[in-house]
Amino acid sequence: LDKENVVLEVDGLVKTFGGLVATDDASFEVERGTITGLIGPNGAGKSTLFNLISGFYEEDEGSVRVNGVDVTDDTPHEIADHGLIRTFQTPRKLEGMTVREAMLVGPQTQTGESFVSLFTDGSTVHEEERANLEDAQRILEEFEIGHLATQAATDLSGGQMKLVELARAMLAEPEVLLLDEPVAGVNPTLANKLRDQIARLNEQGVTFLIIEHDMEFIMNLADPIVVLDRGSVLVEGTPDAVRADNRVIDAYLGG
Ligand code: ADP
Ligand code: MG
């Protein structure tokens, strides 16, 4: 692999919780411009890996590089500044906010930290905040959900919320976007929308690393696929190669 084309380098990541080894010397690279799939049985360590890469967990061992820069000890915000953004498996609670306001809650935080003072009335919104609101509206329209902008965020369906999460992550103008189970619990129509949006953004140059349980979805969207099992990379390759690999079948059967 040509290192110039590597946007994310995960090298020997180890993370233990008490006696439990969640990631065990996990190493792989994500090539710029790809949609890379990260799959593996329940408990394989996929979400832990995302938390390590994006700076939410501190690793016991190993390193992470974004565009060749070592970000191992960086905070989530610093990592975001290097162009790496992630979404969460479970969307956050966004009580009392419209969808457009919820868009301005920083994608790198679970605590509701915001780019905008959410509780000011329209007349006191600063110029910069107004610009952010305009960006948010533009992105919602690109996602064909502009009509949802003034709805209460809590009124959205799970699937709509996932679309908003993706739209919101785009506000940070990521170079590489990590999505944790983007279509979990999403109906087929919205899942197709999500797929189309991911493909559109990828064509615009965004690199994706996607954890997904829905095999049809990920095998049709991603290439290559990285298979994680018991905390380490078991196999990586094209969807066809991964599908046909007996080690992968065994891992899923709990071998
Ligand atoms: P996956 O996303 O592949 O289903 P996870 O990364 O969520 O797997 O979990 C891997 C293992 O690490 C599991 O056994 C899980 O229970 C454990 N684990 C994950 N996060 C924590 C945590 N914060 N504290 C303790 N154990 C955890
Ligand atoms: Mg998970």
From TrEMBL:
Keywords: Amino-acid transport, ATP-binding, Nucleotide-binding, Transport. One of its GO terms (biological process) is amino acid transport. The keyword ATP-binding applies. Pfam families: ABC_tran, BCA_ABC_TP_C. SUPFAM superfamilies: P-loop containing nucleoside triphosphate hydrolases. The keyword Cytoplasm does not apply. Residues 8-255 form the ABC transporter domain. InterPro entries: AAA+_ATPase, ABC_AA/LPS_Transport, ABC_transporter-like_ATP-bd, ABC_transporter-like_CS, BCA_ABC_TP_C, P-loop_NTPase. One of its GO terms (molecular function) is ATP binding. Belongs to the ABC transporter superfamily. Probable component of a branched-chain amino-acid transport system. This is Probable branched-chain amino acid transport ATP-binding protein LivG. It comes from Halobaculum marinum. The lineage of its organism: Archaea, Methanobacteriati, Methanobacteriota, Stenosarchaea group, Halobacteria.
